[in-house]
Amino acid sequence: MKDLVSIITPCYNSAEFIEETIQSVLNQTYENWEWLITDDLSKDNTVDIIRKYNDPRIKLNVLEKNGGAGNARNNSLERATGRYIAFLDSDDFWYPEYLETMTDYMEENNAELVYCNYSRCNEQLQPVLKDFLADKVVTFSNLLKTCRLAPVSTMYDTKRVGKFLFPVKSKREDHVMWLNLLKVVPEGMPIKKTMAKYRMRENSVSRKKKNIIKDQYLVYKDFMGFSTLKSLYYTGNWALNGFLKYSKIFN
């Protein structure tokens, strides 16, 4: 029997895209999964769309109060019972072989954390940049300078390392969580195959780099406990790498 994969999904006002995301999970060749979807009190018909799918593996929880993506992910993580944790935001997309390839690699290579290539797409899931390549082993040290791990393309083994929650007081909760994980896991291993699509929406918080430099600084200062000078150094590296990573989008 293959190990259970827990898929963690926060959603908020995702009616426009959620059906494509759901179908990408239902099409997985690896079938032993549970999908913990936490709706952050959507104002559209996201919840109605999800409830149309009569699959016992899809486990929806609707929060009574909006608390942000990190809080919604934590709600799903607390309910998760699988060995492997995978993340899929409510507007992203997996290729059918995603879960099977990721879990096979982890088992065959005794890996605790893996990530793969992913396509960077517009709202119609058409590529707008070259694929982001999983071409380096990720460590705590190199993740400080740029966040190579994306929820849509990363999986870890809770049997080996336990669960890692997201800080709800940071707007850079993904980066903080990955850094905390890599304090325990020596390295994240790359799978050099494109198996996911990341939808780069025009109004995405992660696209507004100028508005989140302060938030990124606080990743180092408040959450990593670095000095002011050290925090500024890593913030500068992150900003430069972010510019190089996204500067050609929608020009």
* Tally of separate domains: 2
- Strand neighbour order, sheet with most strands: 3-2-1-4-7-6-8-5
Number of helices, counting only DSSP H or I runs of 4 residues or more:
9
Mean pLDDT: 93
Helix content: 25-40%
Q: Please state the structural category.
A: alpha/beta
Low-confidence stretches: none
GO molecular function: hyaluronan synthase activity
Pfam families: Glycos_transf_2 (PF00535)
Keywords: Glycosyltransferase, Transferase
Organism: Chryseobacterium carnipullorum
Structural description of this entry:
The chain has two domains: 204 residues, Spore Coat Polysaccharide Biosynthesis Protein SpsA, Chain A, CATH 3.90.550; 42 residues. 34% of the residues lie in helices and 20% in strands. The chain has nine helices and eight strands. This is Glycosyltransferase. It comes from Chryseobacterium carnipullorum. Keywords: Glycosyltransferase, Transferase.
Summarize it.
The protein is of the alpha/beta class and 251 residues long. Helix content is 34%, strand content 20%.
Task: Using brief descriptors, characterize the structure shown.
Spore Coat Polysaccharide Biosynthesis Protein SpsA, Chain A, eight-stranded mixed beta sheet, 34% helix, 251 residues, alpha/beta, 8 strands
Helix and strand topology:
Blueprint (H helix, E strand, L loop, with lengths): L4 E7 L6 H9 L6 E7 L6 H6 L6 E5 L6 H11 L4 E4 L5 E2 L3 H12 L3 E9 L18 H4 L10 E4 H4 L11 H9 L7 E11 L13 H11 L4 H19 L5
Parallel strand pairs: 1-2, 1-4, 2-3, 6-8
Antiparallel strand pairs: 4-7, 5-8, 6-7
